[in-house]
Specification:
Layout (H helix, E strand, L loop, with lengths): L10 H26 L10 H31 L11 H32 L5
Helix pairs in contact: 1-2, 1-3, 2-3
């Protein structure tokens, strides 16, 4: 089987979606903490923070969806059968595609749960 006619997965493609989740998490935490830290206006609405978190969440979710769909398509199209235990380039590729698919799904859910408080909380209480 030729590996030259499609995207080659490596550790960078594997860790890209958890890295996006980590950056998204830090952004949401710091934006909310920056607005709510003075503790002088705890009952005022945080509409700007909610908009900023929503604007950061959409591209992060889109990236995770793109990475997961790409990994799933390649994994299924080129023999996505378990297990991946042979010491060949094809099995390493299958393993990386499968792992990328699972990490993309996990990161997608983590990003949703990171942004969820911005939808539910309306002030700094």
């Amino acid at each position: 089987m030729q590996l030259d006619n499609r995207t080659r997965d490596n550790l960078w493609t594997l860790i890209s979606t958890p890295a996006v989740w980590g950056v998204h998490f830090l952004f949401c935490y710091f934006v909310a903490a920056y607005v709510c830290a003075p503790n002088t206006r705890i009952f005022e609405p945080i509409g700007g923070v909610r908009v900023a978190i929503a604007l950061a969440t959409l591209p992060a979710l889109a990236f995770c969806a793109f990475a997961g769909i790409r990994a799933t398509r390649e994994w299924r199209a080129f023999g996505g059968d378990l297990p991946f235990d042979a010491p060949t380039a094809e099995d390493r590729e299958r393993f990386l595609e499968f792992s990328t698919m699972l990490l993309a799904a996990l990161s997608f859910v983590a990003i949703v749960f990171t942004a969820l408080p911005a939808l539910l909380v309306q002030d700094c209480r």
